Amino acid sequence: MASKQSAGSPGSQQTFNKLVEQFGPLSASTKTLNEGGSGEPTQPSVSDVAPFVASDVLNKVALLGIIALAFGIGAAFFKVSPVIGFVAMLVSFGFVLISFFKPAAARITAPLYSVFMGVGLGVISRSYAQGNSTVVPLAIVATTAVFFAVLFLYRTGLVKVGSAFVRATVIATVGLLAAALVSIIFGMVVSFAHQSLIYLLIFGYMYLIVGVMNLFVDFAYVYKAQQAGVSKEGEWFAAQSIMISMVMIYLALLTIFTGGNR
Prior knowledge:
The chain crosses the membrane at residues 61-78, 84-101, 108-129, 135-154, 166-192, 198-223, 235-257. The chain is mainly alpha-helical.
């Protein structure tokens, strides 16, 4: 069940705790004495802070996606150099680290992440589109379709995000990073054909599977945070997490549609 998703996984518990500790809960059970001095607690004080709303998180994800798309189109149109694109992606990763250690900063780092990641994705997309100009719009449409499909499957309960699912996601993510590192280390000693195959398997199909799994976990965090009563400020942190998963899915689909040739 989704309500159990944070149990049993240190990574998931830590992420959920960041939302709760930094942005909630909204109301505090502050006990005060009645005027009569009976010593009985009065009703807990009600916070005037706006609550965390899952639908608003999704709206913020849409905004971040539009920002990334706009800057990606701009980077491709103005033919930004690969070096600048690489630096932009490094900068975007820096914003992710900032928000991880300081979730309250996500309202600033999330849009900036989308700006710089959009530039990097624009450069990457342009290189992929040189052989086939249709792969980029196809990957964008497919990524959007995956987003709504995952949301539908989670909300209808067809896919349960329990502790085992979260643990599997963490393990798969770590395994993917290890496989990517091995691919980079040994990339220069294998033939180009084998490089394309390895790249397709790791950064295509494996990346897609892990990206989708992370997206399921992200949705579980969002709806659990809403139930926990965290404040509205936590929405940007959650939206940025979803955006990171969306980037993974987009890059995976882009790789698959081009057959691993980059």
